[in-house]
Each structure stands twice: as C-alpha cells, then as structure tokens.
Amino acid sequence: MARLILFNKPFDVLSQFTDSSIGADRRTLSDFIDVPRVYPAGRLDRDSEGLLLLTDDGRLQARISNPRFKTPKTYLVQVEGDVTPDALARLRAGVMLKDGPTLPAEAERIEPPALWPRDPPVRFRKTVPDCWISLTIREGRNRQVRRMTAAVGHPTLRLVRWRIGDWTLDGVAPGTWRDISI
Element (H or E) spanning 76, and its range? Predict the structure, then answer.
C-alpha cells in the first residue's frame, strides 16, 4: 500500500531532504520529516509555503507531479496592488511568459485568508495596497505563479499552495505533516 504524506512546508525550507550547497545552513525536509523512502511529488520554492505531498510510490508521484496529468494546484496569493478584473481575466485566459504561454487558470479575488503568520513577515508598505487572489493552475513551470502575477502587473508578496488535486492543507499546521489513506 502506498504511503502519502501531506506536509505544510514553512517559508525558507528547501523541498528536498539534503542541501548540497557548500557552507549553507538551510532547512530541508529532513528537519521536519523522519520517514524513510518517501520523496516529494513536485517542488515548492524555498520562498513559498504550503502543501507538499510526499510518497513512496513512484507511479503516484508521477501522477501528481507530471504536467501531462494536469493535476490542479490551488494557491492563495497575496499580491501587490489592488487586483483588477482585467488582470484576473488575463490570468484566466493564460498569460505570455518568456518560456511561452501558460494554460488558462482559475483566478478570483478573495478575502484575506485565515493563515498562520509568516516568519519573517511580508513587507508592509502604507502607500502600496495589497490583496489576495486564489489561483488554480494545471501545469508547474519554475516559479510560474510568481511570473504570472508579475506579468499582469501584480507581483507576488506571499504564496501559499493550499490544494493539490483533492488534497488540501486544511488542519495541517506549518512544519507538521500527516499520513493520509489513499
């Protein structure tokens, strides 16, 4: 039976078990998860937070992370500025990035979610408003969500992956994990 772990990756943690950088003292998955033979199904950037799935099943790992399966991934994104309906429409249509157009996304403005405080906190500026959007994509290019929001004029300030497929972060505190039945 395959093992699947839902992990709430904190900010500033690498999505791998070791850090090969010489002289680096960065936190990795091994600082939080002491389970042999499980591997991340996909990646989450060091400066992003949220749901990371780990499994010991190679087929399940491929089904979750391989772009050809188009597994939806939902992000809660704090962006700079007051997001406009036009910017949301552009995200929904797909935006042009340096490596080509993105697939259409689901995008909507949301109320600020009830999340844990980030450490360190997001930079606050009195003169620059911010807001939150929910963004669901079905591909996974390098830093894609950040590049998409920047392309529509709203740079990302905080990025939390909330859902992958049917699995969510609901009830999983930052830096903790739980096994789930599949």
Answer: strand 73-80
